[in-house]
Amino acid sequence: MMTLEFNVPNMACSACATTITNAVTSIDSTATVDADLKTKRVKIDTQQPEATVKEEIVAAGHTVT
Ligand SMILES: [Cu+2]
Prior knowledge:
A hairpin with a 4-residue loop joins strand 2 and strand 3. It contains 2 helices and 3 strands. It is of the alpha+beta class. The structure holds copper (II) ion. The site of copper (II) ion has 4 residues, from helix 1.
């Protein structure tokens, strides 16, 4: 298990956070996602590699920086 941290600047509301959470858990059902709407940061505990998780969030329509 590894903790990743991403900036997702266009994450605006809890629906965005849910979209991101669902995207991540679709590739890793054991992942935990902690999205902070104020700081636009998403913390993810996952076994998937960083690039894979990033791709999945981008595919869900969000920009990752
Ligand atoms: Cu939203």
